[in-house]
Amino acid sequence: MTAQLTLNELAALMKSAAGLTVDPKELANRQDATFADFGLDSLGLLGIVGELENRQGRPMPTDAERCKTPRDFLALVNTANDTVPTTGA
Amino acid sequence: MSSPEERRSVVTGIGVIAPNGVSTETFWKATVEGISVLDRVTREGCEHLPLKVAGEVRGFDPADLIEERYLVQTDRFTHFAMAAANLALDDARLGRADYNDSPFAVGVVTAAGSGGGEFGQRELQRLWGQGSRHVGPYQSIAWFYAASTGQISIRGGFKGPCGVVASDEAGGLDALAHAARTIRRGTDAVVVGAAEAPLAPYSVVCQLGYDDLSKLDDPARAYRPFTSGACGFVPAEGGAMLIVEEEEAAESRGASVRALLAGHAATFTGASLWEESRAGLAHAIRRALEDARCAPEEIDVVFADALGVPAADRAEALALADALGRHASQVPVTAPKTGTGRAYCGAPVLDTAAAVLAMEYGVVPPTPNVVDVCHDLDVVTGRARPAELRTALVLSRGLMGSNAALVLRKGSGSPS
To answer: Which PROSITE patterns has this protein been placed in (chain A) (predicted)?
Structure first.
């Protein structure tokens, strides 16, 4: 359950949680653009964090919903994943 | 609402999402033809409830007009308002090119009576069914009375004065007055109106406590104001948004001036105290006429509140007699909402839209399902009645005690 969050998954979450159609390639090419540039507002990012927490059954880092860019968000979320001991899978 | 030297407010665009039409054209056609679309409630989760008849908006797909990113974070009442605002902006030919350099010149005002019940019900079901972690963050804004104003403002880039009027059903007219005051203070244009979506199961249950709600199951008999068969009102969803502009600003950009918001007044007389509403409504009519510098005899048509509760209908007929004198029994009175139901705050804005169109086309639309009027009023029933209409009076009352009157004057423009 602690697999690394990918850009593809982030794009899918932006669609399901905030109704945004974002091409994962575009997300990959512009990882330092702000979420606002992609049309994602703070409540939308909060919804994505909530969805990840529900899927993984544990809280995300406290500042996850404050990340400004996809790169920052993936780095924070995935670092957190690394630091949590996994139970296989 | 304005003196000659003041900044006058004119209607330049109309957008309608109503049970009898999800465009202004279809709404007007059904309204003139007196088609009733009242029908059995079909919304999922409502089948077993004692409210049997309502005016549902069917065949409306908000995705046709509004981007998904706005749809996921908004309730159905905001979908209606955003779609209607779109239609109104198109109708007024008011586009980004007109205000790109002056976004602060355009404001947004809506009225709301119940907020986002459907969205709220879904999130509350998640709260109790799955837990607090499953409530989406957009619940914080979607249910909110101000949601439609905010989302229309954000989507259109309107940075002028914005507001929401929460003053009961008559708030639909109060919102138009608020827009006129906003324009008088210097704003060039206001996107203004109201739309409601009160037919989610949660919202319906909230209304079941109203004594004035019609529980009849026959769509042809459920809502018949001004008749001896009056047994309450039928609720509806939908509403209308208008583009209201300062007259000179509208003319200078070549917009068609459809009508003038000439006068308004509102009073409050207490929840369901229908006998008392007579004095309140009469006072609102008198003050609206004064505001418009309009003599009672100048009123060419009245769009009645027409609640469908005998005591309320009597109070409205008497209020018209009190305020208009002998003219009250001579002026054509209509209540097209008997064919659609009452969309709470959306209802008087739909009536305002119909009044503007009635003046443009020179015809008083009829009052569906109403025959054998038992008050001293010339209620237009059966077929539409051709008439030269220069001034219209729109009335509205709310279940919680608000009363409002709006006087409209015909504009110089022609139907677009």
So the answer is: CARRIER, PHOSPHOPANTETHEINE
Both structure tokens of B195: 């739309």
CB of B17 closer than 8 Å to CB of B80: yes
The predicted structure's pLDDT at residue A88: 40
- The reply to whether residue A46 touches residue B137, judged by beta carbons under 8 angstroms, is yes
Domain ranges across chain A: 5-80
Per-residue model confidence as pLDDT tens digits over B159-216: 999 999 999 999 999 999 999 999 999 999 999 999 999 999 999 999 999 999 999 9
State which H helix or E strand residue A53 sits in.
Answer: helix A42-56
CA–CA distance, B135 with B305 (Å, rounded to integer) = 39
Per-residue confidence band for A83, with pLDDT thresholds at 50, 70 and 90: low
pLDDT of residue B282: 98
Q: Which CATH architecture has domain A5-80?
A: Orthogonal Bundle (1.10)
| Interatomic CA distance for residues B230 and B250, integer angstroms | 43
Look-up of token digits 């999800």: B22
Q: Say if residue B323's pLDDT is above 50.
A: yes
pTM score: 0.95
CA distance B16 to B237: 12
Q: Are B200 and B75 in contact (CB under 8 A)?
A: no
Q: How far is A20 from chain B (nearest CA, A)?
A: 5
Of B70, B134, B140, the CB nearest to A43: B140
A47 and B138 in contact by Cβ < 8 A? Answer: yes
